[in-house]
Amino acid sequence: MNIVIENGRVIDPKNGVDRSNASLYIAAGKIAGLGQAPAGFVADKVIDAAGCVVCPGLIDLGARLNSIEAELAAAVAGGVTSVVVPPDADPPLDEPELADRLVHRGEEIGKARVLPLGALTLGLKGERLAELAGLKKAGCVAFSQANKPVIDTEALLRAMEYAATFDFAVWLQPQDYWLSRNGIAHEGEVASRLGLAGIPVAAETIAIATIVQLVRDTGCRVHLTRISSAAGMALIQRAQHDGLPVTCDVGVHHLLLTENDIGFFNPHARFCPPLRAQNDRLALSTAAVSGLAAICSDHTPVGADDKLLPFGEAKPGATGLEVLLPLTLKWAETAKVALSDAVARITCGPAGILGLDSGHLALGAAADVCIFDPLATWQLMPEALKSRGKNSPWQGYMMTGQVRSTLVGGRVVFNR
Fold first, then answer.
1. Catalytic pick from 12, 60, 94, 298?
2. Do residues 327 and 393 touch, judged by C-beta distance below 8 A?
3. pLDDT score, position 216
4. How far is 183 from 191, CA to CA, in rounded Å?
5. Nearest partner of 388 among 107, 75, 35, judged by Cα
6. Which of helix, strand or coil describes residue 54?
7. Is 377 in a helix, a strand, or coil?
8. Which regions in the chain score pLDDT beneath 70?
């Protein structure tokens, strides 16, 4: 189908495009033109994007698909056209057949693209290596332990040596097992006042320092996920300054919330890693502004019963796919970031980390497109979410920025 998207503000950060009242032309699932129709182009469908932004589809670096149909529907409702899926499914993605099945199921559903992370170790137990080569062939974009630790540092060294041999990327959530195993919240005044066991910033910095040293020794490409502290981000900045192949991301909730948002034991504000202090939030924001860190939803759908428990027993995480865009826009407004730069953190930035030629609207690129109204307001009500997970610290809040349409490979997969 030939599609023309008219009258929108086209923003393509990777290619430096920010044009008002422009038309985007799509043919055979690819971007066929911008501003001027290609020769012989006849539109089968016209989408009026007046008052809207037309940008590359969002790429989410961390989204759990507890119910793949519902979560992929949530993804495209949030303008997300590609989702990176951690390996801590049930069972873990430690066999090629499991990864292959996930990719093909995603293709059958025909919503967002599914990019699985293969398990680095069998059963995510941090001991024996999984079948990395087979997982790669099955469609895994990198290898991860999700938030499961590799307690044995020698096992992590060997895994990174092996990954470096084949230029596989390893994704790790830096959190020292011994310092975090009994913790619930950020170690600070709030946790002390509420009587909650704390997780010190050192749990993150010790893990980052260890991983960075192993990167120096092995040359392994490493992406550090869900960074939560100023000290941790400083270590990553130093590693990049030294020329090490280290990248990172931050969950969008950590850009806007702090330990104070736990309030009176609000289980919706329990995250892994925990929400930290105001100076940490500001440092994470600065890293996102500079492009040091990409932004992800850290989408973790949790059943209602698991959030009705006391804070210390409630499962950590929040729904994120459908609020990634408005929360990123809220962060951009707070941090005084240009809209194009904010869009970059959730499109071409993540694509660069993945090493994929996506997240842009150049001629010939796959027509993964998000059309959103940056001024539309809506109230986040749990029953209106497509995700099975209704858990969010933003329940009842007014959001600004709403997706109107989402296209994947030139197909309209969501239309409000």
1. 298
2. no
3. 98
4. 10
5. 75
6. strand
7. strand
8. none
95 three-class SS: coil
Q: pTM of the full predicted structure?
A: 0.97
The b/e string for 312-322 (b: 16+ C-beta within 10 A; e otherwise) is eebbbbbbbbb
Each residue of 272-319: pLDDT tens digit? 999 999 999 999 999 999 999 999 999 999 988 999 999 999 999 999
Q: How far is CA 37 from the centre of its chain?
A: 34
CA distance 31 to 10: 13
Residue type, 14: K
- Spatial separation of the C-alpha atoms in residues 12 and 5, rounded to whole Å: 14
Name the strands in the sheet holding 113-119, side by side, starting at the edge strand that comes first in the sequence: 58-60, 80-85, 113-119, 142-144, 169-172, 221-224, 246-251, 293-296
249 in active site? no
Distance CA(216)–CA(72), nearest Å, equals: 38
Of 133, 119, 132, 211, the C-alpha closest to 174 is 211
The helix (run of H) or strand (run of E) holding residue 286 is helix 278-290
